[in-house]
Design goal:
Blueprint: E1 13-14, E2 21-24, E3 30-31, E4 38-39, H1 41-56, E5 60-67, E6 76-86, E7 90-99, E8 102-112, H2 144-149, E9 150-156, E10 173-179, H3 187-194, H4 201-205, E11 209-213, E12 215-220, E13 229-239, E14 242-250, E15 256-268
Antiparallel strand pairs: 1-2, 2-6, 3-4, 5-8, 5-12, 6-7, 7-8, 9-10, 10-13, 11-15, 12-15, 13-14, 14-15
């Protein structure tokens, strides 16, 4: 398999004469069953972050995005970032992503850095290490494409393995993940990984479940060039057909790298 086939990120192209960027929704970046394939939300989110970082020439501090429509294989996505406020150390930026004449994603974020020696973060959960975790896909119910891009090891919780699966419920999930192409993780890849949060719904509800993303948000705590991360996902609440999830991403040494959140339309299944 070629290196391009294992690249989990979109390739942004600067559009001459503008401040905009574009990319093609390559099939390798899409998920879902063959008849209803769509651009993975984490890939679109990461593309928005990259476009705003390139527009501000500053690293992302926090970014949030609302999904307004769905991208399909072969779609051309246009990203239009605009700096709304320039500060001494922080710039605020907004972005509109469109496909043709249709609104696709609305994003906003803060970008910059400040020198400070003050540091504090929560500790990672007490779960199995990478070496002690058995290789186990946590996303095969969502997409075999994601499985091709990343290697997974289940550190805590359960993953359904059959139709009619029933669990005790009330369980969170923790998993290790690393890119199969061997490249180190960066902010954009953390954003892609954070979008996998709906896999926690199975264990929380004790039945087969997933969700369609309404939004994504990520707050970056520390820079990283780690080759893998530990992701712990908590389902904060489910009611009225919607679910709200939170994820913490840790480096192998236990350092907190990012905090993410997501709201989804709840989807319940009876069979795999």
């Amino acid at each position: 398999m070629s290196a391009d086939a294992l690249a989990p990120l979109a390739e942004l192209e600067a559009i001459a004469g503008t401040a905009d960027f574009g990319f093609d929704a390559a099939d390798r970046l899409c998920v879902g069953v063959p008849a209803r394939r769509f651009l993975h939300g984490g890939v679109a989110f990461a593309a928005c972050i990259e476009a705003m970082e390139r527009a501000t020439a500053l690293p992302a501090i926090q970014v949030s995005a609302q999904f307004l429509s769905v991208g399909r294989p072969g779609d051309r996505v246009l990203l239009a970032p605009r700096i709304s406020v320039k500060g001494k150390t922080v710039n605020q930026c907004v972005l509109q992503a469109t496909i043709g004449k249709e609104a696709f994603v609305a994003a906003q974020g803060s970008f910059g850095h400040r020198a400070s020696e003050i540091a504090h973060a929560i500790h990672p959960p007490s779960v199995r290490s990478w070496d002690d975790s058995i290789p186990h896909s946590v996303v095969y119910l969502l997409s075999t494409r994601i499985e091709r891009l990343f290697e997974f090891r289940l550190a805590a919780g359960e993953v359904p393995d059959r139709s009619g699966w029933v669990g005790p419920g009330g369980q969170n999930i923790a998993f290790w993940i690393k890119p199969r192409n061997g490249k180190p993780l960066d902010r954009m890849l953390l954003a892609v990984i954070a979008d996998l949060a709906p896999i926690a719904l199975h264990g929380a509800l004790g039945r087969l479940a997933s969700g369609n993303s309404l939004d994504n948000a990520i707050r970056f705590v520390a820079p990283t060039d780690a080759g893998r991360v530990l992701v712990r996902v908590v389902v904060d609440g489910v009611r009225g057909g919607f679910a709200h999830l939170a994820a913490h991403l840790f480096a192998p040494d236990g350092q907190l790298l990012a905090v993410a959140s997501q709201s989804v339309i709840l989807r319940l299944w009876d069979k795999l």
